[in-house]
Amino acid sequence: MEDRPCFETQIGNTTIKIRSALPFMTAEEQAQWFQDNDSLPEVRMMKRAWIRALHHIEKEKSDSA
């Protein structure tokens, strides 16, 4: 097995292991990684989900005000 960083989290009964350095990168390194890999479908899906989440949060804030 490779000696790479492994990000591990537990959601319910499911253990998720991510063999990627991304969770361990600085904010600047992550931003550069997303910019460099913008053409990957996984990156595009994550960005769309992120935008939807931010939109939902702002909508909830404006509805409660």
List the helices and strands and how they pair.
Elements: E1 7-11, E2 14-18, H1 27-36, H2 41-64
Antiparallel strand pairs: 1-2
Question: How would you describe this protein?
Answer:
With 65 residues, the protein is of the alpha+beta class. The chain has a domain at 26-65. Helix content is 52%, strand content 15%. It has 2 helices and 2 strands; from the N terminus they run ββαα. It has helices at 27-36, 41-64, and strands at 7-11, 14-18. The protein has a two-stranded antiparallel sheet. A hairpin with a 2-residue loop joins β1 and β2 (14-18). The radius of gyration is 16 Å and the shape is extended. It starts with 6 loop residues before the first strand and ends with a helix. The model has no long low-confidence stretch (mean pLDDT 84).
Question: What characteristics describe this protein?
Answer:
65 residues, two-stranded antiparallel sheet
Fraction of residues in β-strands: 15-25%
Give the oligomeric state of the chains in this entry, treating copies of one chain as homo and distinct chains as hetero. Answer: single chain
Mean pLDDT figure = 84
- How do the strands of the widest beta sheet line up side by side? 1-2
**Overall 3D form:** extended
Low-confidence stretches: none
- Please give the radius of gyration in angstroms: 16 Å
Based on DSSP secondary structure assignment, what is the total number of beta strands? 2
Distance between the termini: 52 Å
**Biggest sheet details:** 2 strands, antiparallel
Q: Count up the helices.
A: 2
Quickly give the structural class.
alpha+beta
Question: Which range best describes the helical content: under 10%, 10-25%, 25-40%, 40-55%, 55-70% or over 70%?
Answer: 40-55%
Helix and strand pattern: EEHH
